[in-house]
Amino acid sequence: MENNEVIKKKIFSGVQPSGKLTIGNYLGSIKNWKEFEESYDCIYCVVDLHAITVRQDPAELRRRTYETLALYIASGLDPEKNTLFVQSHVPAHAELSWVLNCYAMHGELNRMTQFKDKSKKYASNINAGLFTYPVLMASDILLYQTNLVPVGIDQMQHIELTRDIANRFNQVYGETFAIPEGFIPKAGAKVMSLAEPEKKMSKSDTNTNASVYILDNRDDIIRKFKRAVTDSDTVVRRAEGKDGINNLMTIYTAFTGKTDAEIEKEFEGLGYGHFKLAVGETVADALAPVKTEFDRLMADKAYLEGVMKDGSSRASYLARKTLSKVYRKVGFTQPK
Ligand code: TYM
How far is the CA of 141 from the centre of ligand 1 (A)? Predict the structure, then answer.
């Protein structure tokens, strides 16, 4: 490396290929990744190892893995400038995860709200992987000496835990891991369900009207917004208790950059119907080019496989460096 070459800070993030991705996934994470492309070294992963903590149909998991990668690219990420890869293609994630399991406490994992929620939702399959999931996530992040992790609010508790594990390890063995910080967007860090706006929008929601999927067609997007649950008031304004309208305003802001005051002015005297239609049309317009590019990419599996291969070899190189450092520090012998 040239002496004057600037070492860029590192970004890592990922999405589980566990369902159709929603505009919550888009606004909370993928849409924001592009802006880091020039100023950071960015690594984005399709986290298939995480997905099997909930039962997946194998053929569907395989298809969704390709789809998630295609969506990353269709959302504007350039595979030449970003490292895009599939988690199971880089064994170091599972390997570091085992080590870090021995530095994560049962009590702290037990406090994770996502574990509590998922244990309720999947009561017949509370497997050990569901419990240790945040340790695998910590490994994803720490393997790359990550500085910044762009995610939705629901992942912030896992990032806090990642920091705790990294600090604990560094204290015992000396500087080993960079301590990462979470990054959440100003608008869209927690997109709510359109059917039950007090609940987070989720790709695993069984009510398909509750979520708008990134790949929904225009008519479905507009129909879902028209049907979005609101309240008995008629004025478009942000206020306590108006969860539905607050959510629609957040979504509108995230896609247009307009402030609350600008939105309130735009829809003054116009009522909810008008507002809902405008949000629906705005979202449909913004997602249309993503869908077109997605369809083009999905028709070219060989290209996607090339991206996966290239991404996993770049990721493996970085991951191996951290993993060997960790193995040395804990006292494992190295094969000669
Ligand atoms: P996952 O697959 O549930 O969600 C992917 C990303 O989408 C964000 N998100 C939302 N943002 C706003 N509003 C919503 N309704 C909404 N729903 C989801 C999530 O916060 C996330 O950023 N554990 C992670 C995946 C992961 C990961 C990592 C992320 C594994 N290893 C390392 C960052 C770094 C997850 O389940 O995301």
Answer: 13
Spot the catalytic one: 10, 200, 242, 276: 200
- With a pLDDT cut of 70, the percent of the chain lying above it is 99
What is the residue with the minimal CA distance to atom 30 of ligand 1? Answer: 137
- CATH 3.40.50.620 segments of the chain: 10-184+300-330
The answer to whether residues 102 and 25 touch, using CB atoms and an 8 Å cutoff, is no
pLDDT (tens digit per residue) in 81-105? 999 999 999 999 999 999 999 999 9
CATH 1.10.240.10 in the chain: give the residue spans. 218-295
Q: Is 200 a catalytic residue?
A: yes
CATH topology of domain 10-184+300-330: Rossmann fold (3.40.50)
Q: Which pLDDT score is estimated for 4?
A: 59
Among the options 10, 118, 224, 276, which is catalytic?
A: 118
pTM for this structure?
0.96
Q: For residue 89, give the 3-state DSSP assignment.
A: helix
Q: How many other C-beta atoms are found inside a 10 Å radius of the C-beta of residue 208?
A: 13
Cα separation, 34 vs 76, in Å, equals 6
> Is the C-beta atom of 148 inside 6 A of ligand 1?
no
- Say whether 118 is catalytic: yes
pLDDT in tens, 15-54: 999 999 999 999 999 999 999 999 999 999 999 999 999 9
d(CA 35, CA 39): 8
Domain at 218-295, CATH class: mainly alpha
Residue type, 262: E
How far apart are the CA of 160 and the centre of ligand 1, in A?
14
